[in-house]
Amino acid sequence: MLVLSRKPGERIMIGDEVVVTVVRIGPNNVRIGIDAPAEMNIVREELRGGQAVPAGDATSAERRSPSSPAHRANF
Q1: What are the strands, taking DSSP E only, across the chain?
Q2: Confidence bin at 7 (pLDDT 50/70/90)
């Protein structure tokens, strides 16, 4: 897992088509914006019906299938 530090307004590029922007940092959460092609689905993990991966638990993250499709949802 790659872990990066970003400030509000800073962006992270994933490949050539996905941009993740840090919109706001609050005391208990971080708001991010994701620009991605319309055909790429994005959804919060808890809405997929799967068990959430605890923060910092790389072994659980590695068990997820790299070929599973991403999902899109409105936040």
Answers
A1: 11-14, 18-25, 30-35
A2: very high
* Distant-in-sequence, close-in-space partners of 70: CB < 8 Å, separation ≥ 6: 40, 41, 42, 43
List the Cα angle 67/71/74 in 5-degree steps: 165
Phi first, then psi, for residue 4 (nearest 5°) are -125, 150
How many other β-carbons are positioned within 10 Å of the β-carbon of residue 20? 17
**Predicted confidence band of residue 21 (pLDDT cuts 50, 70, 90):** very high
Please state the separation of Cα 62 from the chain's center in Å: 15
Q: Quickly count: other Cβ atoms within 10 Å of residue 53's Cβ.
A: 16
